[in-house]
Amino acid sequence: LLPVEVMSDFWTGIEIDTLADRAVVKSVAKNSPAAKAKIKAGDIITSLNGNPVHTGVDWILGLVGGKSGNEAKLQLAGKKKRSAKFKLVPYPLPKVAGRTGKVAGLNYEVHHGKFKVLPDFDGLKPAQTGTTDELATESLVEGRDEYFALVFTGYLDIPKNGVYRLTLGSDDGSKLFLGGKLLIDNDDNHPMQHLSRIVRMQKGLNPFRLEYFDYTGDAELELKIEGGLHKKTTDIPNEMFFRDE
Question: Are 234 and 164 in contact (CB under 8 A)?
Answer without folding.
Answer: no
